[in-house]
């Protein structure tokens, strides 16, 4: 997307001091971090063969996404869907300038990931004790100690390290989570060498108000450029929560093709914010994404058709085959009739 006209709706948002720190005469660039091939697929009961995963990644990259979380080196005993991660990483056709990070749970997983010539890994403690026990079978502090070993090794090896924190707003076992707890973990993550901390509302219970309160606390220990937003859309609050983060200067957003996702340890949590919905939303704000929404919609339909289930993306459902050029969709999203 080049020279996108900032729509009239943006002026309304500006009147409420929206994005005052980020928007001037030029729309900002937002970094989209696609998690569908890993976070999206891991909760699917139907096994997705290696060639389908590889093709999905290829389609997402062809649409212009530059960061695609592609695999997870967890034990197949716990997440069978990721049992072919080595084959996936060895078969993807890597495009220069595209980042293909992977999730690693421990040093064993890290050693396997290194054999696949990865440049970035992600580690994932929980923000609550209850979720940590269910997901990692240890306390939050013990989880941090374990992941520090992985982070230390990766930093020594010259890899980038990204840290996730799950259940940053609410937990299915512990209830609401205090923002200070998440700020503390964020600070520890950055001290360990994480270049970025992704804040995950795993249950999707957050609202713009609760997310804003959380971020105000976290921004006392981290800079906006060190943070990413990771919202599940369980209660339909994903995009409004995103606005709260953009307003505070955060410019990296996690999303999942076709709204795939969920979590086996968080019953009731629906999929992630759909990439198609995110891109359309950003089109409407005049934000530069360099992403072709027509191709992203095609990628979403590709994986949804294989899974035999309807897409969770509202944009994908509505757009149908009306557009062949993404610039026409830019005009639709921005109410630009010129």
Automatic annotation (TrEMBL):
Q: Which Pfam families match?
A: HMGL-like
Q: What class of enzyme is it?
A: lyase
Q: Which UniProt keywords apply?
A: Lyase, Metal-binding
Q: What is its EC number?
A: 4.1.3.4
InterPro entries reported for this sequence: Aldolase_TIM, HMGL, PYR_CT
Give the catalysed reaction(s), semicolon-separated. (3S)-3-hydroxy-3-methylglutaryl-CoA = acetoacetate + acetyl-CoA
For this chain, one GO molecular function annotation is:
metal ion binding
Pathway(s) where this gene product acts: Metabolic intermediate metabolism; (S)-3-hydroxy-3-methylglutaryl-CoA degradation; acetoacetate from (S)-3-hydroxy-3-methylglutaryl-CoA: step 1/1
Give every Pyruvate carboxyltransferase domain span: 30-297
- PROSITE patterns in the cross-refs: PYR_CT
Please verify whether the record's keywords include Cell membrane: no
Q: Which GO terms describe its biological process?
A: ketone body biosynthetic process; L-leucine catabolic process
- Family assignment from sequence similarity: Belongs to the HMG-CoA lyase family.
**NCBIfam families per the record?**
PRK05692.1 (NF004283)
- Listed name of the protein: hydroxymethylglutaryl-CoA lyase
């Amino acid at each position: 997307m080049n020279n996108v006209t900032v729509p009239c709706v943006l002026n309304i948002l500006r009147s409420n001091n929206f994005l005052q720190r980020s928007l001037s005469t030029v729309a900002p660039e937002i970094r989209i971090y696609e998690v569908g091939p890993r976070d999206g697929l891991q909760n699917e009961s139907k096994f997705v063969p290696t060639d389908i995963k590889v093709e999905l990644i290829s389609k997402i990259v062809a649409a212009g996404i530059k960061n695609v979380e592609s695999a997870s080196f967890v034990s197949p005993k716990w997440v069978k869907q990721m049992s072919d991660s080595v084959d996936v990483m060895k078969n993807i056709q890597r495009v220069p300038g595209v980042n293909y990070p992977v999730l690693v749970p421990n040093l064993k997983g890290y050693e396997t990931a290194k054999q696949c010539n990865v440049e970035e890994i992600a580690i994932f403690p929980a923000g609550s004790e209850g979720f940590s026990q269910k997901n990692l079978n240890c306390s939050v502090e013990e989880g941090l100690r374990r992941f520090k070993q992985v982070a230390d090794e990766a930093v020594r090896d010259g890899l980038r390290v990204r840290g996730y924190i799950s259940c940053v707003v609410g937990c299915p076992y512990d209830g609401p989570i205090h923002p200070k707890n998440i700020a503390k973990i964020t600070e520890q993550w950055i001290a360990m060498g994480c270049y970025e901390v992704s804040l995950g509302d795993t249950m999707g219970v957050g609202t713009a108000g609760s997310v804003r309160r959380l971020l105000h606390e976290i921004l006392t220990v981290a800079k906006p450029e060190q943070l990413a937003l990771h919202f599940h859309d369980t209660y339909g609050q994903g995009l409004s929560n995103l606005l709260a983060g953009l307003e505070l200067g955060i410019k990296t957003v996690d999303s999942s093709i076709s709204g795939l996702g969920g979590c086996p340890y968080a019953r009731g949590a629906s999929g992630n914010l759909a990439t198609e919905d995110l891109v359309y939303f950003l089109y409407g704000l005049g934000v530069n994404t360099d992403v072709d929404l027509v191709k992203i919609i095609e990628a979403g339909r590709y994986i949804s058709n294989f899974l035999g289930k309807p897409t969770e993306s509202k944009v994908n459902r509505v757009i149908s085959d009306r557009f062949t050029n993404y610039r026409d969709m830019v005009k639709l999203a921005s109410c630009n009739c010129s």
